[in-house]
Design a protein that fits this description.
Elements (H helix, E strand, L loop, with lengths): L1 H15 L5 H20 L5 H13 L3 H4 L11 H12 L4 H20 L6 H19 L3 H17 L2 H12 L21 H11 L3 H5 L6 H8 L5 H11 L9 H16 L1 H5 L5 H9 L1 H5 L6 H4 L8 H11 L6 H22 L20
Length: 370
């Protein structure tokens, strides 16, 4: 029942906040995030992956014994294993880990985006649709790196390359998907213009034919990477990520959403550019989704990478609400809310045959500590 109510509560807060000042808005949205963090941290569900991660935590050796193992003894990134071992050594249970994981994620979400968007409620409802269940109910490793990137992308804008790459290196210890982030820093030296944006679309959109046709783009790259590693565990992981069996195309609905927003960016480019000092970094990170939705749309490993960039939808839609003296604000908020509601409840119904429909909490049955 609680998962059913989360979206309408946050949607109501988004619309209600239009009558509030900035300080009142911030307080309201912090309360929304606290509510969502509690749903995530106190859950006792999350599909089959939930039980996999609980098993990993329960079977991870305590910190003194862990050092006698080699990293190849584990099937998961060593940073994640060390984190589990450290928390267990402190006497924290898996359910306590869920609480700490949730606090970390939602703290990064708030501090990562609050200076980029005044309509934070808009970001929350897009987050509920696109990231909430997968990153705070199901995933435990990639969600750490996604949350970390919410902070790290500031360093791209500020051109603090040392801090950025140190952060990326740390995140790569928790999930291999973070390796993509190492490629992003050069964006700080690339100036985006409307003409360049149009040309990039002209170049990449035709390549989506490869994805729709089921042609494997990442397989040859995986073969090259496999030849660079010597251990069976590392080679096996690369094969699982890049193999032909892992072709899982991004849905057409998600693709249409992206290009609809792209269309509005192009036709309003000059207006949007003039209203925000952060426009360059926002449009560059939004543009990172272009090859993922076209050339690389059939690769499972890269469909997961979109979670690093999807929340930039909200910032761009926020820009659209304030151009032309806010002429389109209510239309944008309403249409976005309806689309996100559809996606949110569709996921609730379809994921693991409705496993998340009825919220289950560990409160009263388990403890924060071992």
């Amino acid at each position: 029942m609680l998962t059913l109510l989360a979206f309408p509560i946050c949607a109501f807060c988004m619309f209600f906040s239009q009558a509030l000042n900035k300080r009142q808005k911030n307080a309201l949205f912090v309360l929304c995030l606290i509510m969502l963090a509690m749903l995530s941290g106190f859950r006792d569900q999350g599909g089959s992956d939930f039980y996999v991660y609980r098993g990993i935590y329960d079977n991870t050796p305590l910190m003194p014994d862990l050092f006698s193992y080699h990293k190849t003894d584990f099937n998961y990134e060593i940073g994640y294993v060390y984190l589990c071992s450290f928390l267990k050594t402190l006497g924290i249970s898996f359910y306590g880990f869920l609480v700490l994981h949730s606090l970390f994620f939602f703290t990064c979400l708030w501090y990562g985006f609050k200076k980029y968007i005044d309509q934070f409620g808009l970001l929350i409802i897009i987050f509920l649709y696109k990231l909430f269940f997968y990153n705070t109910f199901i995933s435990m490793r990639q969600s750490i790196t996604v949350a970390g990137f919410f902070i790290l992308f500031h360093f791209i804008e500020q051109r603090k390359w040392i801090a950025y790459y140190i952060g990326c290196y740390i995140l790569s210890w928790f999930h291999n998907g973070a390796y993509l982030l190492f490629l992003l820093y050069p964006l700080s030296f690339f100036e985006m213009t409307k003409t360049r944006l149009i040309w990039l679309n002209i170049i990449f959109i035709p390549t989506s034919i490869l994805g729709f046709a089921g042609i494997d783009v990442m397989g040859p790259i995986g073969d090259i990477l496999s030849s660079q590693f010597s251990t069976d565990a590392e080679v096996d992981k690369i094969d699982r990520y890049f193999s032909n069996d892992n072709l899982s195309p991004i849905g057409i609905f998600h693709t249409l959403e992206y290009f609809l927003i792209m269309f509005f960016v192009i036709i309003n480019y000059k207006k949007i550019e003039s209203i925000s000092p952060h426009f360059q970094i926002v449009i560059k990170l939004f543009l990172c989704l272009l090859p993922l939705f076209t050339l690389l749309r059939g690769s499972e490993i890269l469909t997961r990478e979109k979670d690093y960039f999807t929340l930039f939808y909200a910032i761009i839609l926020y820009y659209i609400t304030i151009i032309n003296k806010g002429k389109y604000k209510w239309l944008v908020l309403l249409v976005t809310c309806l689309i996100c509601a559809f996606g949110y409840y569709r996921f609730l119904i379809l994921f693991d045959n409705g496993a998340l429909w009825q919220y289950k909490s560990w409160i009263g049955n388990s403890s924060f500590f071992l």
